[in-house]
Design brief:
It comes from Pseudogracilibacillus auburnensis. The chain has a domain of about 150 residues: OmpA-like domain (60s Ribosomal Protein L30, Chain: A, 2-Layer Sandwich). It is about 50% helix and about 10% strand.
Length: about 280
């Protein structure tokens, strides 16, 4: 009888493990690169940029074209004004190097400016949070940070009666605290009125657009008249029910959407609040 050839058992891991381990390694390296690129060190970035600008590293690389020890007379003897062409080429290289240095300098300046503005905005948010805590206003006024700046949110129930834009006496102390806060800074301010989606139709306010705009105007007028704030710092916006914070399903949702937002603008967005020059 013929003996069956037994398959030899191979030692070690199966072949698919090699491919799998390579994939895991690549993924690990990929995430390490992402993490390293997400944290920019301006000093290192500047030094690396300057090293790329330097042409000294090219002096250490051998030329792929063999040198034939050609003398200047042999190379340029019959060209007449050939030196001028060389000078022009060298001048062109200098110009391109200057442009590269300019671009890198602009990028570094932009990064530094962005970092300063981010720090200033974080400091503003910190000051406002501290102010709200010290005055025990956290339950009435909330603050949040956005790309535009810092937004103070006041629910309309403390400022106005239903379907009205006249400031209540009970709401004046809260606006006084905000007015004192605005006195301590020079930022431009946009005051926005927001309503729920229930329709309104009165002689004074035919729709929620008029009501929200009137409420924002009342708040700005109070800051100007009662706290002597510069009127050129302010913008007014009436958004009606177009920007709800939650869906208008319950009375509680309606209450959250009826609000006045006081946006303390960051320096980047202050240009929109300045009046056009004559």
């Amino acid at each position: 009888m013929r003996r069956r050839n037994r398959k030899q058992q191979k030692n070690g891991a199966p072949k698919w493990m090699v491919t799998y381990s390579d994939m895991v390694t690549l993924v690990l390296v990929f995430f390490i690169l992402l993490f390293s690129m997400s944290q920019i060190d301006l000093v290192k970035f500047e030094s690396i940029s300057k090293s790329f600008q330097s042409r000294a590293i090219l002096d250490f690389l051998p030329s792929s074209v063999p040198s034939e020890n050609i003398t200047n007379d042999d190379a340029f003897g019959g060209l007449g004004d050939g030196d001028e062409g060389v000078d022009d080429a060298a001048g062109g290289e200098d110009d391109s190097e200057d442009e590269e240095e300019l671009d890198v300098d602009k990028l570094i300046d932009h990064l530094e400016e962005w970092e300063k503005k981010a720090d200033a905005l974080a400091k503003l948010m910190e000051n406002i949070d501290s102010f709200l805590d010290s005055e025990e206003l956290g339950d009435v006024i909330s603050a949040k940070r956005t790309e535009e700046g810092v937004i103070l949110v006041l629910q309309d129930s403390i400022l106005f009666d239903s379907a009205e834009a006249q400031i209540l006496d009970t709401g004046r102390p809260f606006l006084d605290e905000v007015g004192n806060l605005l006195k301590g800074m020079n930022n431009h301010v946009r005051v926005e009125g927001h309503t729920d989606n229930r329709p309104i139709s009165t002689y004074r306010y035919p729709s929620n657009w008029e009501l929200s705009g009137a409420r924002a105007g009342s708040v700005v007028r109070y800051f100007i008249e009662e706290h002597d704030l510069d009127e050129e710092r302010f913008l007014i916006g009436g958004y009606g029910d177009t920007r709800p914070v939650v869906e208008n399903k319950t009375p509680e949702d309606w209450s959250k959407n009826r609000r006045v937002e006081i946006v303390i603008l960051d320096a980047d967005h202050e240009q929109t609040s300045k009046k056009p020059e004559d």
